[in-house]
Amino acid sequence: MLNRRHFLTGTAAVAATGALAACAKTNNTTSASSTGGAAKTLTLGFSQVGSESGWRAANTQSVKDAAAAAGINLKFSDAEQKQENQIAAIRSYIQQKVDVISFSPVVVTGWDTVLQEAKAAKIPVILTDRSVDVSDPSLYVTLIGSDFEAEGERAAHLMEHVLQGHTGPVNLAQLEGTTGSAPAIDRTKGFAKVMAASDPTWKIVVTQTGNFTRDGGKQVMAAFLQSHPEINALFAQNDDMALGAIQAIEAAGKKPGVDIKIVSCDGVHDGFVAMTQGKINAIAECNPLLGPQLMDAAKQVAAGKTDLPKWIKTKESDFTQDQAAAALPTRKY
Ligand code: GZL
Ligand code: ZN
């Protein structure tokens, strides 16, 4: 196998025999690769929240699969739900001079400084999944993610649907997502907005974070049932906390989906299975498959396009128990 130097000499020899076209093509390729002019592989630095839920696992897989399919060199880090780990990861991507930085911010605040460092380093930033509260919106190019306030409203409408024909008071428990995260803040807001306009006898008697994990949902729901035995409806802000709460409800000798109606967000596989078992009554889907849109956006910003929409909203829908069995076989996550 000729090494590169010999090969280049060979190419020059071909030029001498007048096969200019072949040589020009080869030279172009050679000269391009020797000057690095050929299409450079794009390097994307991605900081993921953690691995707290089935949604997160599906989101991570989507990012990795889409990077591979797009021929993008992905540097991936898992922050274990700690903001300081995400900030450190973003700083390391800046030092490595990646072409684009992307992350799903665990909470909405505390990003101005590190995003100003990325801006100073002229590295464009794309948000996925969750948004940030920053003083200067130019600190990121676009957010690819869901409308969480709409998800909260959708969940409340699903709860109305599930409670149709219910007589007597509705005593709601709410399991909130990670404190300070965009989904927790906005799902809470959206759910409350519809509740306020709904039947005044409905009230949220207790609300607390379960940090988007199954264990969190189980522990907090067990405590809820101790302090509020009158609970007959639960809004869990993700399926994993609903699945944990189901364990606590059953341990307390009650039937989830019957004695306590349950609506959650996400629509992961196990959430659909719980609906087919009659344990979750309805789910407001939150689509984790953001990878392909992220890679498209990364290629565009790397090519200098900066006029992307500030928010690329994710498409998603709602599911009730009766639709779950039919939908399950074709679910992608
Ligand atoms: C929502 C995402 C949330 C999911 C949870 O887009 O940020 O975080 O609802 C996940 O399952 O942990
Ligand atoms: Zn309504």
TrEMBL record:
Residues 46-305 form the Periplasmic binding protein domain. It comes from the Bacteria. Residues 1-21 form the signal peptide. The keyword Signal applies. It holds the Pfam family TAT_signal. Keywords: Signal. Its main location: other. GO terms for cellular component: cell envelope. It is found in: Cell envelope. The keyword Signal applies. InterPro entries: Peripla_BP_I, SBP_2_dom, TAT_signal, TAT_signal_bac_arc. GO terms for molecular function: carbohydrate binding. Gene3D superfamilies: 3.40.50.2300. Belongs to the bacterial solute-binding protein 2 family. This is ABC transporter substrate-binding protein. It comes from Actinocrinis puniceicyclus.
